[in-house]
Design goal:
Shape: globular
Largest sheet: 5 strands, antiparallel
Helix content: 10-25%
Low-confidence stretches: 1-29, 429-435
Distance between the termini: 56 Å
Mean pLDDT: 83
Number of strands: 12
Strand content: 5-15%
Order of helices and strands: HHEEEEEEHHEEEEEHHEHHHHHHHH
Radius of gyration: 24 Å
Length: 435
C-alpha cells in the first residue's frame, strides 16, 4: 500500500525515471528498517554492534581535519545448545554496508584519499579502502571472543545519493562449506554534521586554522591540509600521549569552547543526527553532560584520564554489584553473562535498546519477535536450547533455581513485561506477601 501511494506521483506528471529512482530509495530504506526481521537460526545466532553510537567524520579534507571516515563493527557468533558456545573458528563472518558500495566519489569525501600523504603519511591509499585496509565489504577477523572489522571508511551518503547518518551493515556467518548459517544487521553510524559554522562562519575550517594561527603563532594556513591530531594527541587515531602541543585533542577542543557558548550537539552530531539515541539515556540536548560532565569538566579531567581510553562507566548510575558488574573496562569492551559482550544484548554505545531509531532495534526484534516493542535481549531461548520455559525450566532451573542457586537473577532479566493472566504463565510462581 505504501509503495502504491508513492506510485501516485505519476499523476503529478513526474517522469517515469524519477519515479523509479524514488521507489528504489524507498525500498532501500524499507529493507534497512525492516520491522519484521527473520527469526534466529536453530543452530547459530550472531550479534553485531558498532563500537561507537555515532562516529564523526569531516565533510572535507583540504583544510582542518579532525576525524577520517572510520567505523569499527564487532560481531559474536554463538552456537546454540545446552550450554551454548561462543564460536570463533570453523566459520567465516562477512560484512557489507547495505546500499553503500563506495565513498570516494561522493560529495567531498574523496579528499581523504587525495590528501592521504599530507594527513596520515601514507604514500597512497586505494579509493574506498580505510586506514586499516578494510573496505565497505569484506571478512571480519577473529579477535578474542568476537569478530571485528576496523576502520571501515563508510560515509553518510548511500549509492542513491541520499544523506543518512544511520548506515547499516549486514553481517553473514558461513560454515566451512560456504553455507549461510546466521545473519543479522547492525547500525554503522557516521555523520559529518560537525557544525563549526555556528561560530566560525561558512568557511569554518579555514577560519579555525586562521584563528589558531592568531592565537598561538602557528602557520597552519600555509600547511593545509592539517590533521589536528598531528600536534594534539588522540587515542582515537592511535596518537598516544598529549602530542607536541602538550594537550590532548579532546582537552584542547573542550577546554577552549567551554566558555564560548557551544553546546555538545554543535560538534557531536547533532541537531539532525541526534547521536545519542537510547530512549532510556537521552534528552533533547543528548543528555551528554549527565555522564560526561560539562565541557570544562571533560577538559580538566584529562589530568587523571586519557580521552577515549578512560570514559564514564555504567556504574555512575547503575549499581555495580547487581546491575553492571566490573567497571574496569569500557562498555564497548565489556563482557557479562557467558562472556557475551554487553553490546551484544544491550546494543551499541549511545544506541542501547530501545532506541528511538528502528535500525538500532533490528536485532532485538529479530531474536524476540514475539515482543510488541523492542527490548533488551533477555530471552534465554535465543542461545539456550533447553531454557525456553514452555513446559519446564530445564537448564535454567539447574543454574538459577532452588534455595541456593549457582547464579542469582531476578524475574525481570527474562520477563521485561508480565501478563496479569496467571494462567498463561509458562511455569508456577507464588508471590510472597511481606506484610
Amino acid at each position: 500500500m505504501y509503495i502504491m501511494k508513492k506510485l501516485s506521483l505519476l499523476n503529478f506528471g513526474l517522469p517515469i525515471t524519477v519515479v523509479v529512482v524514488l521507489i528504489t530509495v524507498i525500498l532501500a530504506g524499507c529493507s534497512k528498517t525492516n520491522n519484521n526481521p527473520p527469526p534466529a537460526s536453530s543452530e547459530y545466532v550472531v550479534f553485531a554492534s558498532n563500537t561507537l553510537g555515532m562516529h564523526c567524520l569531516n565533510p572535507t579534507y583540504d583544510k582542518a581535519v579532525i576525524l577520517p571516515p572510520y567505523n569499527t563493527v564487532l560481531a559474536q557468533v554463538v552456537k546454540r545448545g545446552n550450554p551454548p558456545t561462543i564460536v570463533t573458528s570453523g566459520v567465516t563472518v562477512e560484512y557489507n554496508i547495505m546500499g553503500n558500495t563506495s565513498s570516494y566519489g561522493k560529495r567531498q569525501y574523496g579528499g581523504f584519499w587525495d590528501n592521504i600523504t599530507a594527513l596520515f603519511g601514507l604514500a597512497s591509499l586505494q579509493h574506498d579502502i580505510g586506514l586499516t585496509g578494510n573496505g565497505l565489504s569484506g571478512s571480519m577477523t577473529a579477535i578474542g571472543g568476537h569478530f571485528q572489522a576496523t576502520g571501515i571508511p563508510v560515509v553518510p551518503v548511500d549509492d542513491q545519493g541520499v544523506w543518512d547518518p544511520l548506515q547499516v551493515a549486514e553481517i553473514t556467518v558461513k560454515d566451512g562449506s560456504g553455507n549461510t548459517v546466521a545473519s543479522t544487521r547492525a547500525t554503522v553510524p557516521t555523520s559529518d554534521e560537525i557544525n563549526c559554522a555556528k561560530c566560525h562562519g561558512t568557511d569554518a575550517f579555514n577560519d579555525i586554522l586562521a584563528k589558531h594561527d592568531d592565537e598561538t603563532g602557528t602557520s597552519l594556513m600555509q600547511s593545509k591540509p592539517v590533521l589536528c591530531a598531528t600536534c594534539h594527541g588522540s587515542e582515537a587515531l592511535g596518537k598516544t600521549g598529549r602530542g607536541t602541543s602538550g594537550k590532548y585533542l579532546s582537552e584542547a577542543i573542550h577546554g577552549f569552547h567551554a566558555d564560548q557558548g557551544a553546546a555538545c550537539y554543535d560538534c557531536h552530531p547533532g541537531q539532525t543526527t541526534k547521536c545519542n539515541r537510547s530512549i532510556k539515556h537521552t534528552g533533547p540536548d543528548g543528555n551528554c553532560t549527565n555522564c560526561h560532565g560539562s565541557m570544562a569538566q571533560v577538559a580538566s579531567s584529562t589530568s587523571t584520564r586519557v580521552p577515549w581510553v578512560n570514559e564514564p562507566s555504567c556504574s555512575t548510575c547503575h549499581n555495580e554489584a547487581t546491575d553492571v558488574g566490573s567497571t574496569s573496562a569500557l562498555y564497548r569492551e565489556s563482557t557479562g553473562h557467558g562472556n557475551m559482550m554487553c553490546s551484544s544484548c544491550h546494543g551499541s554505545p549511545h544506541a542501547m535498546v530501545p532506541s528511538s531509531k528502528a535500525v538500532d532495534n533490528y536485532q532485538a526484534m529479530q531474536y524476540q519477535p514475539y515482543s510488541n516493542s523492542p527490548k533488551t535481549l533477555g530471552s534465554c531461548g535465543t542461545c539456550h536450547t533447553s531454557s525456553r520455559g514452555e513446559s519446564n525450566m530445564g537448564e535454567y532451573v539447574g543454574q538459577h533455581g532452588g534455595s541456593n542457586p549457582e547464579t542469582k537473577n531476578g524475574c525481570f532479566i527474562c520477563h521485561t513485561s508480565v501478563s496479569t493472566n496467571t494462567s498463561s504463565w509458562p511455569h508456577a510462581y507464588t508471590w510472597k506477601n511481606s506484610n
